[in-house]
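Narrative of accomplishments. A recurring question from our advisory board has been how the design workflow behaves on a single, concrete structure rather than in aggregate. To address it, we present the structure tokens for one chain from the evaluation set, followed by the sequence designed for it. No filtering or post-editing was applied between the two.
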């Protein structure tokens, strides 16, 4: 899982994220479950970088569109359950999404650090 996919998961669960120092401030209508809290901690540096780079709106738009399309294919799955379905039924697509997210995260970090090509 990449920072962008963690951000998308948080967004799909109605959470608001904001960079806070070297970490991330999380708020929302419901308490964050321990499993998701740990995932956020594991990706806090990448999440903070995405949020500081102003990429949250871009990530939200991408996932809103992607999940709308995939949700039409799998109407019985809720958004939170869709990713495991994609991984199980479309592993090449899942690997492609992970690869693209990792490249995007790396490019955003490089740009933010002044190392853009």
């Amino acid at each position: 899982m990449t920072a962008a996919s963690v951000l998308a998961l948080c967004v799909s669960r109605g959470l608001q994220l904001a960079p806070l120092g070297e970490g991330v401030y999380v708020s929302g209508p419901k308490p964050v479950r321990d499993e998701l809290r740990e995932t956020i901690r594991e990706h806090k540096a990448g999440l903070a970088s995405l949020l500081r780079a102003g990429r949250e709106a871009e990530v939200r738009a991408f996932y809103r569109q992607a999940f709308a399309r995939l949700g039409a294919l799998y109407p019985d799955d809720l958004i939170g359950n869709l990713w495991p379905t994609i991984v199980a039924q479309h592993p090449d697509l899942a690997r492609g999404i992970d690869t693209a997210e990792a490249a995007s995260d790396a490019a955003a970090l490089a740009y933010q650090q002044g190392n853009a090509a």
